[in-house]
Amino acid sequence: xxxxxxxxxxxxxxxxxxxxxxxxxxxxxxxxxxxxxxxxxxxxxxxxxxxxxxxxxxxxxxxxxxxxxxxxxxxxxxxxxxxxxxxxxxxxxxxxxxxxxxxxxxxxxxxxxxxxxxxxxxxxxxxxxxxxxxxxxxxxxxxxxxxxxxxxxxxxxxxxxxxxxxxxxxxxxxxxxxxxxxxxxxxxxxxxxxxxxxxxxxxxxxxxxxxxxxxxxxxxxxxxxxxxxxxxxxxxxxxxxxxxxxxxxxxxxxxxxxxxxxxxxxxxxxxxxxxxxxxxxxxxxxxxxxxxxxxxxxxxxxxxxxxxxxxxxxxxxxxxxxxxxxxxxxxxxxxxxxxxxxxxxxxxxxxxxxxxxxxxxxxxxxxxxxxxxxxxxxxxxxxxxxxxxxxxxxxxxxxxxxxxxxxxxxxxxxxxxxxxxxxxxxxxxxxxxxxxxxxxxxxxxxxxxxxxxxxxxxxxxxxxxxxxxxxxxxxxxxxxxxxxxxxxxxxxxxxxxxxxxxxxxxxxxxxxxxxxxxxxxxxxxxxxxxxxxxxxxxxxxxxxxxxxxxxxxxxxxxxxxxxxxxxx
Length: 568
Known about the structure:
This protein is mainly alpha-helical. It folds into two domains: about 1-385, Na+/H+ antiporter like fold (Up-down Bundle); about 395-520, NAD(P)-binding Rossmann-like Domain (Rossmann fold, 3-Layer(aba) Sandwich). It has helices at about 1-25, 30-40, 55-75, 75-80, 85-110, 115-125, 130-135, 145-170, 175-210, 215-235, 240-255, 260-280, 285-290, 295-315, 320-330, 335-350, 355-390, 420-430, 440-450, 460-465, 480-495, 510-515, 525-540, 545-560, and strands at about 410-415, 435, 455, 475, 500-505, 520-525. The chain has a six-stranded parallel β-sheet with strand order 3-2-1-4-5-6, with helices on both faces. α5 packs antiparallel against α6. It is globular and about 75 Å long. The protein starts with a helix and ends in an 8-residue tail after the last helix. The relative contact order is 0.10.
């Protein structure tokens, strides 16, 4: 009978997760939201089929382990260090400030001090998954605000380790809070002191030896054993299994096999993590939420408005353009997977009531739902404001200009992964370029090398006019934002009708539109990938270099004309 009960609960939870996840994906939302709502539907507070919450939570603990292990594997400490002071110092200041404001707000609402600090922690974390999805849909992953926000979220993920240790210690603390926190810190330090060195020394060699066996089943079992074993070991030091698995993942992330490990663990993570988010939803009381909508609104404002504003202000104070600060703040104004984990931790420890948990959960879910439309609305409006109010994104102080206005030069809008390659090639041949770039460090480096460069948004008319477009030979628009690129082209055409323009595009529709505005050439990344891979395939089958080049030229012409090239 116990087996039947376990199986019945697993079936109910899995079907609910499937339906909720499918509905969320259909609506363009994160599947996590669908899983949580599915948990609400089968929870004890709503009518209909009810799953055994104890059983689901037991299975969900396995999901937490694999989820946290996978998140740890995905973290890149090298990328974090390369992000610089903005992400590391900025995120640290934002975390402390947001937790403090959340704590104060909760105390003002009559919550207990322990519930208040849990609320502050829950609202302080942002999701890199949500950010990446929003940025990828708009082809803005390589923008300055995108890179800052993702690196910022990585710092928050690492800070969650400290938060979990502190919150667990506070929940179990007696009269001597300081002593209990110190003892928790000592146990955590011992655990890290054992796991990290052993992990860096032993795990890479272990996985290399197992990979050499060329047996996928054994490799997957090894991954599971490491994740589960480290999580179990953490419990002997008074730490949560989630924290142990996360540390194991971070250690493994520096291995040469980290990508293979992540790929193999992904199916297990997806199945059991779905059950974890279902279990989170089962703990929520929708009736309590309905009776306290004003408190939910307070939570949403704390996450979206207050946290977003704090993040944006910090980015602005780091001398980033205003547009970068605003968009970075909007990206960070939502909640993360770690938010649900911290809320669930508080519920499991008895630190927060069912009602408080429900309010935290609802506010976090709504913030995730609001993030994509808010970002889309502000990104478009900010680009239009830049054109109407030219100084809106101008630097705070006068920017150094060449003694003589350049002539016959190339104006390069964007100096990231695309523009940087173009600029370096032109400079090597001795051609003059004038750069507009949003990344302050890049602009500083270019100026140090004697290259004229302006800091700010390329769609800004004031900045464009300072590049002497009327005497330029070429305009290269390498920025990823399609609306900003359109505005650059329109203003450049108004200034110099004969200017040769080449634009980076992301879709066939964008390319056709740009050509209709008089752009000489549009370059779409997917098209160039297809053509180069076609060239390689033709050469591999014995086609001569001249014939392959001719075939590529014909394909390029047909694609530029908007034709489809698939053979029927």
